[in-house]
Amino acid sequence: MPALTTTDAPDSAARAGMWSTRLFFLIVGIGTAAWAPLVPYVKLRAGLGEAQLGLLLLCLGVGSIAAMPLAGAASARFGLRPVFLVGTAAIGLTLPVLATADAASVLAPALFLFGAGMGVVDCAMNLQAVAVERTAGRPMMSGFHGLYSLGSLVGALAAGALLIAGLGPAATTLLAVAAIGALLAAAWPGILARAATAGGPAFALPRGAVLLIGVLCGIVFLTEGSVLDWSAVFLVQDRGLDPARATLGYAAFSVTMTAGRLAGDRIVARLGRPRVLVLGGLCAAAGLAVTVLVPDWGAALLGYALVGAGCANIVPVLFTAAGRQEAMPPSVAVPAVTTFGYAGVLAGPAAIGFIAQATSLPAAFLTVAVLLVGVAGAGRRLKL
Predict the structure, then answer these.
(1) Fewer CB in a 10 Å sphere around the end CB: N or C, the chain?
(2) 151 near 30, Cβ under 8 Å?
(3) Sequence-ordered list of residues with C-beta below 8 angstroms from that of 174, at least 6 positions apart, any chain
(4) Over 50: is that where the pLDDT of 6 sits?
(5) Distance (Å, rounded) from C-alpha 370 to C-alpha 80?
(6) How far apart are CA 43 and CA 52, in angstroms?
């Protein structure tokens, strides 16, 4: 089925599709923020070490990677509505389990299903975002990703405030699930019937320039996953904060990422895509260095803020590059890069755990900083 054009849909339908896409990015952001403050609670409740927690977190990445190609195929065959419904339901049903379970045998499958739900919705919303952007005829990807960051920010701040007030992880998580359900209902009327891939397969392994773009996406996703899954743990065990206030690390990251993405189109237009990659990679690397090397929890928050600012527009720029390259059709390259980038979610949290077990958590963060310097170096060579 060909992609929608401005003649295929009236203005009201186009606006509904735009708002629906924004709400789904918001849903994924809230789901991410709902999980982030649960990590130190899960670690303490289940009595896990760093390596054991890393293995558990691996389940989230495996679930996402396994589900995304299936989501692409299902979207092409059945349309986006059932895919969005199944993915959002998986998120909402597993979060309460993650907030209360204390056995790895329960947490592991729940985290796998949670990751699968996040991967399904992420794949579907990016397919819809590409179609909506094409219909609008103007850049919109940074704005959509900004709504994800806004959901992460609002969710992290709300979760932190509720936990500090003594509400508890279970009740806080139920409120997040209720918000996700309400957003799904609001987004439902604007879901596109289909977001076709111009006759190409739903998933293909990246090659050529797409492979490099995918690797860079993977590094940035790894960085985001490291902050999501390990920032609270770092602030608790290395900077002495209590678990409730440790959510401030991810909140600081989300603030600057949200601001950067909401202003992303203007930033890219002013600096150019290569400079966004170079300066963004260096800024994020410097942020992790500040977090680790300055022994103060306030400096750690500043460092996480720098990481968010640096990473903010790298992935949107890379998605644009995937659409502009000529090694693969854009309609195939974009889903491939999305899936390949999620390998960072798969490998990142587990790798951080193993490196932390062998050396230390600060050393693991510095390893990520070195990879971000590599992203900056690639920005000078990649055709954008």
Answers:
(1) N
(2) yes
(3) 96, 99
(4) no
(5) 39
(6) 9
- Please provide the DSSP assignment of 271-324 as one string: H-HHHHHHHHHHHHHHHHHHHHHS-SHHHHHHHHHHHHHHHTTHHHHHHHHHHH
pTM of the prediction? Answer: 0.75
Cα 3 from Cα 144, distance rounded (Å)? 19
Average pLDDT over residues 20-32: 94
What's the angle, vertex CA 379, arms to CA 289 and CA 125, rounded to 5?
A: 90
Ramachandran bin of 240, using left for φ above 0, alpha for ψ from -120 to 50, beta for the remaining angles: left
In one letter, which amino acid is 88? T
- Overall average pLDDT of the 37-58 stretch: 86
Please, what are the domains in the chain?
11-379 (1.20.1250.20)
Please count the other Cβ atoms lying within 10 Å of the Cβ belonging to residue 84.
Answer: 24
Q: Measured on CA atoms in the order 113, 114, 118, 121, is the torsion positive or negative?
A: positive
Residue 88 contacts residue 366 (beta carbons within 8 Å) = no
> Can you read off the two tokens belonging to residue 227?
């902050």
The token pair at 272 is 């150019």
